[in-house]
Amino acid sequence: MNHSARPNILVILADDHGYGDVSMHRGPHIQTPHMDRIARDGIRFQHFYANSSVCSPSRAALLTGRYPDRVGVPGVIRTHPENNWGYLHQDAVTLPSMLQRAGYDTSLIGKWHLGLDPESHPCRRGFDHFHGFLGDMMDDYLTHRRHDINYMQFAQQEIDPEGHATDLFTDWAIQYIRQRESTTQPFFLYLAYNAPHTPIQPPEEWVDRVRQREPEAADERVRYVALVEHLDDGIGRTLQALEETGQLDNTLVIYTSDNGGQMNVGATNGPYRGAKGDMYEGGLRVPACAMWPGHIPAGTITDQVALLMDLFPTACDAAGVHIDHHIEGRSLLPTLHGETQDFGDRVLYWVRREGGERFLGLCQHAVRLGDLKLLHNGAFDPLELFDLGTDPYEQSEGSADTEALQVMRTLLQQQIQVAGATAWQKQ
Length: 427
What we know:
- There is one protein chain.
- It is globular and about 60 Å long.
- The chain is an alpha/beta fold.
- It folds into two domains: about 10-335, Alkaline Phosphatase, subunit A; about 345-420, Arylsulfatase, C-terminal domain, CATH 3.30.1120.
- Helix 4 (about 165-180) runs parallel beside helix 6 and helix 5 packs across helix 6.
- Helices cover about 25% and strands about 20% of the residues.
């Protein structure tokens, strides 16, 4: 049993899990008792955001505490150079490397998606252990290939395991947790599932279960719900392993997602406009909850606005690790403890660089100050200004407010200028 004063830290990140697809947010047809449990026994964020509308930038922000383009990842890192829009800067300081300073054992289980080069390997970026998938997405949850390449690895060795990826990642997480039972050394486990990202490939027994319970739901929705509920079950098994090994009481558990849900495959994002790939709220706002027995009051619901990059300083704060370099993330530990934090002066910024006809290598952006949010959803789309205080679902574009528009345009320009100092291709 781990009796260390420093908590274990478990960050569970889903892939494309939208705000509406949890039962705690009254999502249609869906039952997520284990995600709900984290919120019920701890805190639930109602205004939590991914740092981008797509995968790699959000993961870079979570692991560095920085806006993703400040560490070289404004877009999705992919296998083929002609469609690659990021390179994690070698000078970027990662969360696991910070926690190693405090004596933590660090492990990544699941999806990496922050580079395929040897120098970008998780074991070269602060993780003592890696058991998972290096690439961006799996073309099949059972064969685990991408472009016919096997990106599954244990440490730095290629492996070819059998089974559904969600089950494999859960089993490996449980194995790691059980190995930690007999040591007093605290651990950081980053459990990054690729569910419910496409392809929508839930185990058939889960599909049957949902179909029987929700006979009126469309088949596409049934299959998506089954994939999420299968993921939720894996989270439940992981929490059970922490309980059975006596480690749950000394573990900070955080659950969230890297961007909004992909609605054209059956996801929902609650009442919010847009989906994965959009700078509207549906593409950015994600479920987020945390539990830490004895530290986070159970049943807390917060309106604190926060982002994935805030998990870096929050984890460091909980572990007692001093951050001695510049980051944009802010510690949420006071919020977790039930205190009020005033982030009213904070400028929030989102970016995604992409290829294809819609982007041609250019970016979409959003910037927020207080309740004002300015965005252009595509590289060639006009700027749109919204007041989220009076229009949380972004229905009334307010660019007629010329003074507010000019303030927000200036803030966006300043963020883009700062980002220009960091290269996003390998030099």
